[in-house]
Amino acid sequence: MKTPYGTNDASYQAAGQFEGLIKLVDAFYTFMDELPEAKNVRAMHADDLTLSRDKLARFLSAWTGGPRLYKEKYGAISIPAAHSHLAIGSDERDAWLLCMEKALALQPYEQDFKEYLLKQLSVPAERCRNQD
Question: Which residues are CB-contacts of 111 (< 8 A; sequence separation ≥ 6)?
């Protein structure tokens, strides 16, 4: 019997561990660069996305039940506080989620995990919204 996503490291394992999360994050930022809907969100990032890619992959590691790689390298984080200096409204939240949805579609994950992960990621995405 399969361990439910969100239990222990089941989500981390379903994502392909850290290597799989890196692939997800790389696809996510590729869509952020390419999608016109993500233009405003992309503008909130540095031109060089190396640090953003590293931070997101490390954050997702712990967030999916894997090693706490973000905390080990950068310290503790509050997602809403870390984004509070940015004007994030519904359009920005939705653009971020669109990039993630498209990135998830390219991953070799089970379909139910893709749906689960996108639903779960909508929670911190909404918590970052500070406009509207």
Answer: none
